[in-house]
Amino acid sequence: MVCAPLSRAQVTGELIPNALLVANHISWLDIPVLSSRARIDFLSKANIKAWPLIGWIADIIGTLFIVRGANQTGALISEIGERVQRGRHLVIFPEGTTTDGSRLHRFHPRLLGAGQLDGVLVQPVALRYGSNAAPAPVAPFVGDDALLPHLMRVARHPGLRVYIRLLPPLDGSALSRRHISEYCRHSIGEALGLETANARSLPDDREAAQRLVSSTTRFVEAA
Questions:
Q1: DSSP per residue over the chain, as a string?
Q2: pLDDT confidence of 206, banded at 50, 70, 90?
Q3: Is the pLDDT higher at 211 or at 182?
Q4: Which tens digits make up the pLDDT trace of 109-125?
Q5: Is residue 1 part of a domain?
Q6: What pLDDT shows up at residue 211?
Q7: Which CATH number covers residue 24?
Q8: CA atoms within 13 A on the CB side of 90
Q9: Are 80 and 64 in contact (CB under 8 A)?
Q10: Range of the domain at 107
Q11: Residue 3: inside a domain
């Protein structure tokens, strides 16, 4: 399996039912890593579908593909909401690109409009390869990286560890897309020990709408 080198996965927190998952993005590895934990759909750029093996995996696990410039926002928000309302989980990577794990890009709020729909909770997910003190330099797929050399590089490091933190969810039905995105970015940044300057606070008169759902923290380590 593609994620076989990631033999030391550790999960903290509980996956909440009817949740839109919002994660930071480091690598194509994020997809097999998360899908190995549960039945999860993804939102991805359309060009990923043409990638050898990775595109095939993305397609068969139920990925929604975005075509740039196709003005799909309204239709995608509806489709995302319907899937989550039916009890599915779907992951969005709102940075729109990958990082080396040492920082977070701006979270684009457009598709987080799905988190405003009734029956949809928003759950941030923090991903880290290596540790907060020493992010693994092997995992990031950034810049001019090519798929095959990166795949071979990962395969040469069978001890690579990945940490998945499932964070407290948010009811965003009475909040703006901007506040939903900033809540997710701040929560993920805090979990990873990263700075998230200039994040707005949730408006005081809407704190009741926040309704953070309590979750029991647990650690799972897969051999």
A1: -TTTT--EEEEES-PPTTEEEEE----TTHHHHHHTTS-EEEEEEGGGGGSTTHHHHHHHTTPEEEPTTS--HHHHHHHHHHHHHTT-EEEE-TTSS---SS--PPPP-GGGGGGGSTT-EEEEEEEEEB-SSSB-SSS---TT--HHHHHHHHHT-TT-EEEEEEPPPB--TTS-HHHHHHHHHHHHHHHHT---TTPPPPPGGGHHHH-PPP----EEEE-
A2: very low
A3: 182
A4: 988 999 999 999 999 99
A5: no
A6: 44
A7: 3.40.1130
A8: 29
A9: yes
A10: 8-222
A11: no
User: What are the Cα distances from residue 49, in Å, to 53, 54, 67, 124, 125?
Assistant: 9, 8, 11, 25, 24
Q: What is the pLDDT of residues 35-72, one digit of tens each?
A: 888 888 887 766 666 666 666 666 666 676 766 655 67
Given a cut of 80, whether residue 19 has pLDDT beyond it is yes
Q: In the structure encoding, which two tokens stand for residue 174, read together?
A: 């009475």
Q: Could you tell me which residue, 144 or 102, shows the higher pLDDT?
A: 102
- 181 inside domain: yes
* Residue 135 pLDDT: 77
Residue 2 domain flag: no
- Report the number of distinct structural domains present in the chain: 1
Query: CA-CA distance, 131 to 159, in Å (whole number)?
Result: 13
Please provide the distance, in angstroms rounded to a whole number, between the alpha carbons at the two ends of the chain. Answer: 14
pLDDT computed for residue 155 by the predictor? 79
